[in-house]
Amino acid sequence: MSAFDHTKYRPFPQVEIKDRQWPDKTITQAPIWCSVDLRDGNQALVDPMTVEQKKRLFTLLVKLGFKQIEVGFPAASQPDFDFVRALIEENMIPDDVTVQVLTQAREHLIDRTIEALAGVKQAIVHIYNSTSKVQREQVFRMSRQEIIDIAVSGVQLVKERVEKHPETQWRLEYSPESFTGTELDFAVEICDAVVKKWQPTQENKIILNLPATVEMSTPNIFADQIEWFGRHIQQRDCIEISLHTHNDRGCGVAAAELGLMAGADRVEGTLMGNGERTGNMDVITLAMNLYSQGVDPKLNLADVKEIIEVVEECTQIAVHPRHPYVGELVYTAFSGSHQDAIKKSLTCQTPEDGWNVAYLPIDPNDLGCSYEAVIRINSQSGKGGVAYVLENDYGLQLPRWLQVEFAKKVQARTESLARELQRKEIWETFEQAYLNKADKAELVSYKLERNGSDQLKAVVRQQEEEWQLEASGKGSLHALSEALKERLGQPVHITEYSEHALTSGSEAKACTYLQVQVGEKAFTGVAISEDTVSANLNALLAAVSPVLLANKAKVA
Ligand SMILES: [Zn+2]
Which reactions does this protein catalyse (predicted)? Predict the structure, then answer.
């Protein structure tokens, strides 16, 4: 029996807050960004990054515009220690970038952390301890006061140690880890104690980082927690409130956004959301969300290709093709109606009105994707895309079975050319496959008389040879298949048929698509002619052309 049973879970309690302000707020500026790719993200990898990979990712983060980058847990890991030393000794940290290192507030760990940072211009020391009810009561079995004492003595230790190294500009970040599971009054109490001990100023603020270490509630409750915290914490003007959301419920970005509306100043996250379990808040999505609202994200994400390449190489995790903003497929419309709407709206864009295109929340061009990529139809687009080109550009409405068949021919061609096909080339491929075959049989002339049944007399040409056909049947197609049956000595069954009028150029034409079964084999015929009857007859002749040729060889 399955243990699937919702009754063992409890709803997350509401926050008691009156007149909450955040629902009426709009985010009008970018937060202070802190990338935690190299620490938090790295910790979650199957194969943690090598020093070389970390350098590559660090260089990218600097290039994207991050001014605060958490680079590791140097006291806990030799590769992290070596990496921090390499950054400093190889002069890789620009003057306007601050590295951040995580450590637990224990004496030997703090000493080792300071040792790793020797010679750095500025640094953020990030200390944390767990404050949630479940951790206090079930893991540590400690009182609130004992937990506060751990935090405060840690701050005291850091303070004493960094004072011995005035050549570096030090900042402190404190995280009440598992903040979302901590009673709000206790979170404020412990943070007040930390702030009091550190003595921040308006010029050198302390960072209080409030992690949704596990995302436990809907984002509105998280926002309530942040607003409540901001209202009750003392010395608010000497504090930067930082968010570190996770994505357990799939709302890491939403929670961070609502948390910013609720008054937070700073966010921690990773590129593409790598991190423990379901990952950290995805910085790229949050930044692009701001961007799409006309807010400067203060990160330059224009070269998405490079970002993806570096992140995939360093994390060994492929970016999902549907990943917001950066996934390979997120700007490609497969459906013809979407493509049509996109095409139409693109032509009416004016700079004054701002971006307003159906199905495209942002201009893909901003992230290095061309419009062709959006509205193009290539082999990858499958039958729908190929059919879209033929219909939109050439007026052909291929039936589904032929879409499937023809898409394979397009794919074979793109594969042999090892590149995407232009629209014109898709048409040429169609012509070669169905319309312009050299050995095709076609009507020279025909006469159809209706006299009870349909009497068909036709002259057919194939390979310079002409011959006459004569038969009767129910309709011209039936009559022709009877005549062909006689000529070939075996039945010709029409298994698929569709036709439509064509309006391209001056004269209206008809197009017929059919499939016939002759013996064991199926053959496709397509014809565009002056009228429906000749389109039908030519399509049938085109379909059986190979059989007629084979038969001729046999007779000869
Ligand atoms: Zn995290």
Answer: 3-methyl-2-oxobutanoate + acetyl-CoA + H2O = (2S)-2-isopropylmalate + CoA + H(+)
For 127, phi then psi, to 5°, come to: -115, 155
Q: What is the pLDDT of residues 160-205, one digit of tens each?
A: 999 999 999 999 999 999 999 999 999 999 999 999 999 999 999 9
Cα 243 to middle of ligand 1, angstroms: 10
Three-class secondary structure of residue 235 per DSSP: coil
If you ran DSSP here, which 8-state letter would residue 310 be given? Answer: H
Q: How many CA atoms lie within 13 A of 422 on its CB side?
A: 3
**DSSP string over 67-93:** SEEEEE-TTT-HHHHHHHHHHHHTT-S
In terms of Cβ atoms closer than 10 Å to its own Cβ (0-12, 13-18, 19+), residue 508 is exposed
SS3 306: helix
For residue 101, report the distance from its CA to the centre of ligand 1, in Å: 14
- Residues 6+ away with beta carbon under 8 Å from 304: 325, 326, 367, 368, 369
CA distance 249 to 242: 20
- Going by the annotation, the residues of the binding site are 40, 244, 246, 280
List helix spans (H) across 128-242: 133-134, 144-163, 184-198, 219-232
Q: What is the pLDDT of residues 442-483, one digit of tens each?
A: 999 999 898 788 899 999 999 989 999 999 999 999 999 999
**441 neighbors 460 (Cβ within 8 angstroms):** yes
